[in-house]
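The aim of this short unit is practical: by the end, you should be able to scan a pair of folded records and say something sensible about each. We start with the first protein, listed as its amino acid sequence and then its structure tokens.
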Amino acid sequence: MEEPEVHPALEPIAFLLGRWEGAGVGGYPTIESFNFGQEIEFGHNGKPFLTYVSRTWLLDEDGNRVRPLATESGYWRALPDRQLEVVLSHPTGIVEIYIGEVVFHKIELRTDVVARTASAKEYTAGYRLYGLVNGNLMWAYEMAAMGQPLSDHMSAELKKVA
């Protein structure tokens, strides 16, 4: 089966398409800082949204994988005037809806809705920044959780591998 053409509405975020891999750093006022590896894949099926899957794993001081960390999946929907809606779900019982915009190869997203199951940890808001810098995907994530205000949590630099 032939791969469908990218939907024209996705033009502002088409630079995300593909598989990205790299490493980053994390921390939060309630936890110790850590290094992690990550793989993100953005795909499409010809409709006006991107599919999204991210997997992370803890790295030791030598860069070896220690154990899985977080995973999330969802959809990135491009809207008119370079606006975005992103729906993400987490196996930890959290669902987030982000709204934001694309300016050239920079994407800024803020949570509009956060829902969580009764067993999920307390999490109230998120802010994400993505950008294409010298061909690499750079991103940073701030979260408000566990009684803390919006604070730096994770950031990474990923290279396109496919």
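Turning to the second protein, read its sequence before its tokens, just as you did above.
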Amino acid sequence: MRSIFVGIFCFCSLLGFSQDLPEVDIIKAIVKNAQTDAPMESVHVVNLNQVVGTITNEDGQFSISAAVNDTLYFSYLGFKSQKIRVTNDMFKFENTEIALTELAYALEEVIVRPYQLTGYLEIDVKNLPINNAYQYSISGLSVGYEGGNKNPSAVTKVLGAILNPADLLRNLFGKKPNQMRKLRQMKEDDQIRDLLASKFDRETLMELLQLDKMDIQDILNNCNYSKSFITTANDLQILDAISSCYEEFKVLNRKK
């Protein structure tokens, strides 16, 4: 009798819990230019909660999986990125309009020739800067590592990062465990990958991972990626770097 009562209680608890989960459905809307009211094509739309993405068609229309209270992130070159909270009304009315505001850019002075070139190839090659972001591969591991500037301790730093993960990494990865688990989902969504491959400002990456720019930089520094890589890589390369570092971090912690 007691086992039957416990079974009924567990079933009711599970039923109540499942009813609390938000229902995922398809939401449809239109993205327009706030200044001209014209529909905007190829705007990237990312559901930060479900970790799925899409782009608008030539009429500015899009559809995406979402639940009430999910956050949609809109991004388009030359326009201010925007976050919209999903409401019940957005499911009821398919023609919900989202307006993006155009940014005004002030062009700064650009130095075209920072290096004095003579026109003689042999001389100019010697004067050009050399990228010191050396890559190191370690037997048994399928990925390479950057050791920063070439120096006697570079390989030691790489090995140290792999064998003895820093407390800072543990704090950073532990601070947002749910976001870290979404890394694989981000990498598997083609629309999100395409968006990140075209961006260098870390803005979309910060929204997806719920980390600030300094946290991202600290992770890469402690995974021994070079300053050159951190400052010049696109957001997709940064995502792959963080993902690789996190996977190794999990393996090493499992062995402890």
